[in-house]
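User: Show me a protein chain along with its predicted structure.
Assistant: Here is one chain, sequence first, then structure tokens.
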Amino acid sequence: MPVILIANPKGGVGKSTVATNTAGYLARRGHAVMLGDVDKQQSARRWLALRPADLPLIQGWDFDGEQTVKPPKGVSHVVMDSPAGLSGKKLRALYKLADQILIPLQPSLFDIQATFDFVQKLQELRAENGGNDKRPQLAIVGMRAKEGTLSVQQLQDFLRELGVPVLGLLRDTQNYVQLAARGLTLWDVAQSRVERDLAQWQPLTAWLEGRHA
């Protein structure tokens, strides 16, 4: 059962956007998905409360990150939305639970610095476990990227030096905001409305399904 952790200690980078759309994609693919909310803001839980009942089911799951627990039987995929400031015992618990860690960040100096430190910490955790275990897999996705801007160029330069696979840059669009306000994802509306966004998600979905190798 894959456990996918969406994490970055920097707040406001788009973790809940990635988490909800990841869960929405997997649910649309027919998987039995549980969306865990480790964030005190409970963004994922509020989003689930808005989700129309006629859409593919996504179950909720409260997980405090302090102990390893198993989701109910029948769940095939778990997506976890993590809080800002993730560190210490909570980070260790989630790291041990995760099969994949997807790290969103925005093209800003503050996001870049926080993400660099976070990746270093994850690598330290891997070294503590012997360094041979490839689990969890790490990947990065850029958020709210505006093509042709200096900030995006700086972000791309940084990502090339980080040594973690980059799944792409998601554009700055109101589609995510408008869909989230209705409990929806890119996969719950007509493809023609979000065609460009779905194309940007293709490398992410391939990674989620293990088709990146």
